[in-house]
């Protein structure tokens, strides 16, 4: 009789556990609407050299919204890198690399200039930054 009672209790217990597991609602994960998901910005890393008298590359093309990182190294004398539309003006010391970062949030073709007198060809030391909209 005692063995029968234990068997009944065990059977009921197992049945209750099974019923409990079966009645759990499926787990769901709620994601934000697709238009609220912000993709991280694309980062454009560009190595640029400054020299008497130019920049290499002299033309840079990026897409609007991209984060641009210019690693600019003067290979000879003191120069500058002035990109007025993005409010950038940095000094470039010889053999040093300067990081210039900006988000290309304005579309168009923008001129960059050397802002430190570096000799006869200084006025011609220019580059173009093209931001495609
Ligand atoms: Cu210059």
What does it look like?
The strands form 3 sheets. A 4-stranded mixed sheet has the order 2-1-4-7, with no helix packed on it. Strands 3-9-8 form a 3-stranded mixed sheet, with no helix packed on it. Strands 5-6 form a two-stranded antiparallel sheet. The mean pLDDT is 87. The longest helix has 21 residues, at 2-22. By secondary structure, the protein is an alpha/beta fold. Strand 5 and strand 6 form a beta hairpin. It has one domain: Cupredoxins -  blue copper proteins (Immunoglobulin-like), CATH 2.60.40.420. It has 1 helix and 9 strands, in the order αβββββββββ. Residues 79, 114, 116-118, 122, 125 line the site of copper (II) ion (CU).
Spell out the key features of this protein.
four-stranded mixed β-sheet; 133 residues; 16% helix; three-stranded mixed β-sheet
What's the tally of helices? Answer: 1
CATH architecture: Sandwich
Q: Which fold name is given in CATH as the topology?
A: Immunoglobulin-like
Catalogue the unreliable spans: none
Tally of strands: 9
Topology (elements, then pairings):
Blueprint: H1 2-22, E1 43-51, E2 54-56, E3 59-63, E4 67-74, E5 79-83, E6 88-92, E7 97-103, E8 108-113, E9 126-132
Parallel strand pairs: 1-4, 3-9
Antiparallel strand pairs: 1-2, 4-7, 5-6, 8-9
Structure summary:
By secondary structure, the chain is of the alpha/beta class. 16% of the residues lie in helices and 41% in strands.
């Amino acid at each position: 009789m005692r063995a029968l009672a234990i068997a009944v209790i065990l059977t009921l217990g197992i049945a209750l556990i099974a019923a409990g597991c079966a009645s759990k609602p499926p787990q769901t994960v709620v994601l934000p609407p697709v238009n609220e998901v912000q993709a991280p910005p694309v980062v454009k890393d560009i190595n640029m050299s400054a020299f008497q008298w130019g920049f290499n590359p002299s033309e840079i093309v990026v897409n609007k919204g991209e984060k641009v990182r210019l690693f600019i190294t003067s290979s000879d004398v003191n120069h500058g890198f002035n990109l007025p539309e993005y409010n950038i003006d940095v000094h470039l010391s010889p053999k040093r690399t300067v990081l210039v970062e900006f988000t290309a949030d304005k579309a168009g073709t923008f001129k960059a200039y050397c802002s430190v007198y570096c000799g006869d060809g200084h006025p011609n030391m220019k580059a173009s930054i093209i931001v495609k909209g």
